[in-house]
Amino acid sequence: MSGDSAASGSGRSGDRPERPVGRTSRGRFRWGRPREGGLLRGEVQGSPVIRLFVRWVRRPLLPVMRLWRRNIQLKVVVTTLLMSLGVVLLLGFVVIGQVRNGLLDAKVKASQSQATGGFAVAKQQADEAASGTGEDTSAVDGRSSQSVIQWMSDLVESLSSGGQGAFDVVTLPMGDESGGGRGPRASGHVDPAESVPGNLRDRIDSGTGAAQRYTRIVYSNGVDSQPGLVIGKQVNDPNGDPYQLYYLFPLTQEEKSLSLVKGTLATAGLFVVVLLGAIAWLVVRQVVTPVRMAAGIAERLSAGRLQERMKVTGEDDIARLGEAFNKMAQNLQLKINQLEDLSRMQRRFVSDVSHELRTPLTTVRMAADVIHEAREDFDPVTARSAELLADQIDRFESLLSDLLEISRFDAGAAALEAEPVDLRTVVRRVVGGAEPLAERKGTRIKVVGDQQPVVAEVDARRVERVLRNLVVNAVEHGDGKDVVVKLAVAGGAVAIAVRDYGVGLKPGEATRVFSRFWRADPARARTTGGTGLGLSIALEDARLHGGWLQAWGEPGGGSQFRLTLPRTADEPLRGSPIPLEPRDSRRNRGLDDAGAPHGGGAGEKRATLPAPPADTEGSARSARDPLGPLSAAATPTADPTALPGNGSRVVSRPAAGAPPRGEPAGPAAGDAAPAGAGTDAGAGGPSGTGDVDELDEPDELDGLDGLDDVDGLEGLDGLGDRRGETSRGR
Amino acid sequence: MKGRVLVVDDDTALAEMLGIVLRGEGFEPSFVADGDKALAAFREAKPDLVLLDLMLPGRDGIEVCRLIRAESGVPIVMLTAKSDTVDVVVGLESGADDYIVKPFKPKELVARIRARLRRSEEPAPEQLAIGDLVIDVAGHSVKREGQSIALTPLEFDLLVALARKPWQVFTREVLLEQVWGYRHAADTRLVNVHVQRLRSKVEKDPEKPEIVVTVRGVGYKAGPS
């Protein structure tokens, strides 16, 4: 079993790197290419070749390196192998050194005494020969040299015969002289000149003492040379002339012993290293297997299989790890189950409360309706009471249902029933439903961008609820001005924006509108009596879809609520086809709205009355005068291209050169500060820091903008706006 | 308009209020407060319509609904406090024709009841074919190769609505209006659940429907005959 797990472990770690390796090497290749080309064309010829070579060498190594980084077992085993190899080598050298010294010391001592004896014998023989032939010496010179030659040959023979092959004897003439019959002589086919090292000869030449050297003894009869010790001394022949006498001791035996020791040590060392490696492997596996098991089980735990546990055997540290791990898993499971139970209880509670509250409410409601129906028969006070009763029960009812809806979201009990829906039908339904209210308010609701189908996988009931909320809000806060509902598709997202030109939002309100029971102005009378939960529910609905619901607004300039939904359920959103800040916002029109309340008022007046441009210009400037040069720079002039796309609004546009100057603030809501003074930054800022993950989104908007929301735009804003957008987008 | 309505509800106040409203609209209500006694009361009263609360002492509403449906096709309208998906769908699947969420307005309730009862007043001799089914509208029967298939009145209406215009794709909203009598869009789950129930009765293979065909993203239409 453990073998299995180890195998699977290594297999896994072998498999996994494959993909990243391939990717990195490919990536590297791609990156390397242009640089390489530049080098080949312009600079050093060699370096790309070297780099290519390095890469060629490295590529097969990369998986190995990856394996090395990931596999602790491999790491430990290799380290152990290397370190034990080092230790064994060190030990081997020390041992071999000592053995050699031991062996050689004895041999050298024996050789020295042998040689000393030999030198003494040679001296003695020379002395004997000299006294024996003393009288003849002066008589016959030639004969004496003749006899010296003979004598020396005899000497070498007699000296070497004493060793019985344990050593050889060599005589060499002094210095460079070679005449006088005293040529080199050697016993046992030793090559005298080769076997005696030159520096030893020099040494013997210069002194009378004995000296020794290690050398290789070379034989003239084809026998292999062998290591040996040479001990030499200057000795006199019977004539009193000095010559060099060398004793050569072969060290074959010692070398054999040494190599035997070496061999033994090497074998032993190899075994030790391999065994250590194996031991390390086994030991590490004992530790690594549970660790890998723990890792695998942790992965499964995090994948939701909470009943997974480690197998614990024994009481060692690994077992403790396992126990701790299991305890952790158990606690996690417990906590998760507790939370699930809580959530279930909460849901149950909500459901029960819902039932318990609704049943009496139904009775009350029916009773109230019956009374309300019959109110004509009552006296005025009772009749009015009946009306109030019916109205407040309506309100109570919607409040209750909103509360229940919110608590359903809080309990995580809300489920998405997504199916492909053409959002245009939803929008039409919502707009149709809001018409009566709009008529009462004198507002016209326009739908833009509904030329082609806008299909997305959504829960139509929820989207309709969100849109109804947005449209009703827009109509309610629109001050009787137009409300524009814009649809757009781009990339993987659909968006519906509801724009009104009413009181707008104060700085910081763009996120607070989604808070529960938040009211824009507590003093403000509510005509339709919302519950204060509508936008919170809408936000939850958007989140449930994996979408965004965001608000933008400027004081006096109206507001825009944008719902962005992924086209297919579960697809993450990356941007929205409609910019959060509408194109006809004050900032996008290049207007300076630091003096928002006045400027805004003047602007709106101008917007609704197509009055002569010069006049409105004057009034606008006077309204914004306190700002001086800043406002002068941005003062709009009538733009002939700003066709009133919606028929009634004349949106004043900056002069042709103005957009770049007015634009630096750009669409990014976050950096609104420089041009837009306090108020604008405030209005843009909070939406940028909103609770949906929208911080990174404005950048991506630009990319999406260009895609295919053109139709919608042209209908709404006309050519001028489109141009402004393009110049900004680039 | 005659109409005996059986109110199955344990809340006496609500039951009484329902009685007041129903009598005011000309119906003849009868009451039962216990799930266990509901079936007996149903057999005794022989109502034209059942108003059924889902939460009952004794047998719960779902079970009662199933039992009534097992022996009669009489329209059943659930009263439910839970508009959650599961409750509604379970109720519809157990055989209810329609549901109404508490709290409701008396007019709304009456409109639903009328819509359910209206159907039984328009017998017109008509013979329709859908797939390999033959529908006798006046005789309220559906036959495949001479074998009659038992459908509830609502399922029958749904099938007839589709069969009358086999060339038309019906959106769920249109079906809600034509079959259930809703004026404005309501819960399209009603349609989904009843189409499933209808399919389970009339299709040879409910997994591969040939009679009631789904048109993805739009709605349903009758299969080719």
From TrEMBL, chain B:
Q: What does the UniProt keyword field contain?
A: DNA-binding, Phosphoprotein, Transcription, Transcription regulation, Two-component regulatory system
| Gene Ontology MF term list | phosphorelay response regulator activity; transcription cis-regulatory region binding
Domain named Response regulatory: which ranges?
Answer: 4-117
Instruction: Please give the DNA-binding region boundaries.
Output: 125-224
Residues in coiled coil: none
A GO CC annotation given for this chain: protein-DNA complex
Domain of life of the native organism: Bacteria
Q: Which residues carry this modification: 4-aspartylphosphate?
A: 53
Residue ranges of every copy of the OmpR/PhoB-type domain listed in the record: 125-224
Q: Which GO terms describe its biological process?
A: positive regulation of DNA-templated transcription
Q: Which InterPro entries match?
A: CheY-like_superfamily, MtrA_REC, MtrAB_MtrA, OmpR/PhoB-type_DNA-bd, Sig_transdc_resp-reg_receiver, WalR-like, WH-like_DNA-bd_sf
**Record-given protein name:** DNA-binding response regulator MtrA
Q: Which organism is it from?
A: Streptomyces sp. SID7499
The record lists the lineage as: Bacteria, Bacillati, Actinomycetota, Actinomycetes, Kitasatosporales
